[in-house]
Design brief:
33% helix; 3 domains; alpha/beta; Rossmann fold; six-stranded parallel β-sheet; two-stranded parallel ribbon
Length: 420
């Protein structure tokens, strides 16, 4: 069995030395078949028991919500040929999930795309997997409008990837992923390309998407002489007018998923809602008001609108993720101390936007080093000396002898950065 081979990769899941079953899995295992469209009576009347072991089959009427949990559990345990006492620790349970379900892995690399790593990462000593709340949310998210408030590093973007893949395989119309940050768009495109979803899933930043809509519908495009801000305003205004006049068709997408929703303006969200196919009406908004880095001073007090005011039906369909998996406990503690005055946790009505205070998932790591510098030039000098204190007296390089480049906005800064 392939699943058995996967689990046997982990020494932590094997019987210890000296035990009667040394080297074997420490938990019982078996196999079974789920027939989600056939009742037990249909199974028996069709004579399927002649080719399938009846005790290894679960039929539709045996896994409905009305079925008592004890009866369902007995059906599962009845599939095991051998049963022996077994109690898995939380870490061992995570080990099993790590091997059986690669999609719940959180990459050890400093990135937020752990679910989509192209190459299999080495098995770490401290496993990083989505917690059961995240996994259940990602797998069982229903139709309609959904909003996830999550602290930084809580796995929001990973859940978005789950949802995009699910919708792409179950919908005939295209799926749209919208972000604010262009670099996030580029990484998501790369990930979806390696997953073979680019034909069904489009990833754009908001203004790039407006450009696409206008170009496809024959609408006016910005002049080359416009400034970046003028281009954005032009795209927004013409897209709003194009949708209102019917030049740009509505209901183009089976599903829309918005990452970085905290940086979207109310008018943008209103526009997005009109692009949903009413037949599916699948909208997912990922939000963390503490990460509103593009709204400037105006965003410090939180958003001033409710989801209902922009057409998002979020009541009864919101989830809050508090565990931070991206940072170690000490890094998270230092970050919280620095941001306490600016980003204190703020509750809100379900239809509004709270600020979620992150909680540690328990990762351990080296203590961060805090350096106090009086001037920017002193800070640069500290950076130059830092590598020699941490490693060797040689300049820090990037492999193959390549030095780290230092970019500066003006010649004056470059002059003061000599030696970096």
């Amino acid at each position: 069995m392939e699943a058995l081979t996967l689990l046997q990769k982990a020494p932590e899941l094997k019987q210890p030395k000296g035990s009667p079953r040394q080297g074997h899995l420490l938990m019982p295992y078996s196999w079974g078949l789920v027939l989600s469209d056939i009742t037990r009576n249909q199974f028996e009347n069709a004579g399927l028991a002649k080719v399938l072991h009846a005790h290894r089959v679960i039929c539709r009427d045996e896994m409905m919500e009305a079925v008592e949990s004890e009866r369902f559990e007995n059906r599962l345990t009845g599939m095991f040929a051998q049963v022996f006492p077994c109690h898995l620790t939380n870490e061992q349970t995570d080990r099993a999930r790590y091997h059986l379900f690669p999609e719940v892995r959180v990459n050890v690399a400093p990135s937020q795309f752990g679910l989509f790593g192209k190459h299999e990462a080495p098995i770490p000593s401290f496993l990083k997997v989505m917690d059961l709340q995240q996994e259940q949310l990602a797998r069982s998210m229903g139709e309609g409008h959904r909003v996830i408030h999550g602290a930084a590093g809580s796995g929001k973007t990973m859940i978005l990837g789950y949802r995009a893949a699910y919708l792409a395989h179950t919908s005939s119309k295209p799926i749209l992923i919208l972000c604010y940050n262009k670099s996030l768009v580029g990484r998501l495109k790369q990930v979806l390309s390696s997953s073979g979803l680019t034909n069904k899933v489009s990833v754009r930043n908001f203004h790039g998407w407006c450009w696409d809509l206008l170009k496809t519908s024959g609408g006016a495009l910005p002049d080359k002489n416009m400034s970046p801000e003028e281009v954005k305003l032009f795209l927004e205004r013409n897209t709003y007018e194009g949708v209102a006049s019917g030049l740009i068709p509505k209901a183009q997408y089976a599903g829309v998923l918005i990452d970085e929703g905290h940086d979207f303006h109310p008018e943008w969200l209103k526009l997005v809602v009109t692009m949903l196919d009413p037949a599916s009406n699948s909208l997912l908004v990922l939000y963390d008001d503490a990460q509103s880095i593009y709204r400037g001073q105006a965003g410090k007090g939180g958003m001033e609108f409710s989801f209902a005011s922009v057409g998002i039906q979020a009541q009864g369909r919101t989830t809050i993720l508090r565990l931070n998996y991206r940072n170690t406990l000490v890094v998270l503690s230092v970050a919280r101390a620095f941001s306490l005055d600016l980003l204190s946790a703020r509750d809100a009505r379900e239809d509004n936007i709270p600020i979620v205070s992150p909680q540690s998932a328990g990762r351990r790591g080296a203590l961060p080093e805090l350096l106090h510098c009086e001037t920017p030039w002193q800070e640069r000098a500290r950076h130059r000396r830092a590598p020699s204190r941490r490693t060797t007296s040689r300049p820090l390089t990037l492999g193959h002898g390549r030095h780290i480049p230092v970019f500066s906005p003006s010649p004056a800064n470059r002059k003061n950065s000599d030696g970096c």
